[in-house]
Amino acid sequence: MIQALQSLRGIATITATSLVAEIGSFNRFASPKKLMSYVGLIPSESSSGETRRQGNITKTGNRHVRRLLVEAAWSYRHKPALKEI
């Protein structure tokens, strides 16, 4: 699982190991939406009748995993460094 996560840009050994340790089995989530809800990376919502407003992320859930994913996303936005052989 750790090697599979490391294949994603922005996730290195420590991040992948921490994600696996904190989440355990990714199979326990039926969908990516359920995982993001567990981590607290879904928008808050205020609904009344026909009006539906979405706000900032809820920040409820596993704070450590949320931080790891946010930091991985920040490093993902940079182009990968290509090494010459």
UniProtKB/TrEMBL annotation:
Highest taxon listed in the record's lineage: Bacteria
Give the signal sequence positions.
Answer: none
Q: Where in the numbering of this chain does the Transposase IS116/IS110/IS902 C-terminal domain appear? A: 3-83
Cite the InterPro entries for this sequence. Transpos_IS110, Transposase_20
Q: Which PANTHER family match?
A: TRANSPOSASE, TRANSPOSASE FOR INSERTION SEQUENCE ELEMENT IS1111A
Q: What is this protein called?
A: Transposase
